[in-house]
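I'll show a record.
***
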Amino acid sequence: MTSLSDRVVLVTGGSAGIGRSTVTRLAADGARVVTCARHGDRLEEAFGGLPGVCTTVADVADAGDRAALLDRVLDEHGRLDAVVHNAGVGWAGLLEDMPGESVEGIVALNLTGVVELTRLALPHLLRSAADRGRADVVMVSSVAAWSQVPPLTVYSATKAGVQGFARGLRREVTTRGIRVHTVNPFFVETEWLARGHGHPPVSGEDARGRLSRGISPDRVADRIGGLLRSPRSRTVTVPRWAGLARLGEAPPVDRVLDRLLSGNADRIRRIAARTVAERVD
C-alpha cells in the first residue's frame, strides 16, 4: 500500500513550519489529514477550506487534549492509518540558565507527548494494519539525537529519547504491519527557537525575522511523504549528509567534543543568548 490516496493521517503541530508543509503535501497527494496546534487562528489561516484537511485545537503535551485529538480523528474518519509526530519545541542555553518549567515543557511535548499519543493511537493503527495492509508512525527527530551539542542539551536529550523509542517500537510492531520511521533534519527554517523561549507565534512577513536559519520545511515534508510510502521502517536525514552527525556518538569524536565544548561554556552561553535575541526582538 504505497499510495497516500484516502489514507487517514494525523499530523501534530500543523499550523507552521514542517507541520504546515507536511499537511499541504499529504493533502495534495490525496490523504485525509487531521492536524492540530495550540492556536486555532493559525490553523484556520493555514488550512481553512483546504480540501481533505480537518483541523482541531490541541496541545500534545496535555493528556486530555491527546485523548480528545484521537476522538476527533475517529469521529471524523472512523479509523487512523498513520501518525506524524511533528509538534516540538527547543530552548537554547546552558542547563544551569534554564527555567525548570522550560525543562518540563520540552520533555512533555517532545518526548512524553510522542510516547503517549503513540500509545493511544496504537490499537487503531494495528487495526488499520490488519484491515488495510499497513500503518505508519513517523517521528520528526533531529540530528541532535546523535550529536548532543550545547546549547541544545535538553532538546537533544528528548530527541535521543525519541530515537530510542522508535527503535524499541519497531521491535514491537514490525511483524504486525506497522512501519516506524524517524526523519532527522539538520537546522530548519522555523519558529521553534522563539516559541521555545515563550514568545507567541506571529504570521506573514512579521514571522520572517523569527525563523531560524536552515533548510526549507518543504524538504522535510517531502521526506515524510516518502516514508509513508516506504516498504520498510526507515531513519532518514535531511539533507542526507547530515547523517555525519552520528559520528558525534563514536569514540574518539565523543571525547574530543566533551573537552572542546565544555571548555567553551561561557562562549556558548553568549552565542545562544545573541541568537535568541535576534529571533525575538
Remarks:
- The first strand starts at residue 8 and ends at 12.
- The longest helix spans residues 100-132.
- The domain at 8-280 is CATH 3.40.50.720 (Rossmann fold).
- The two ends are 47 Å apart (CA to CA).
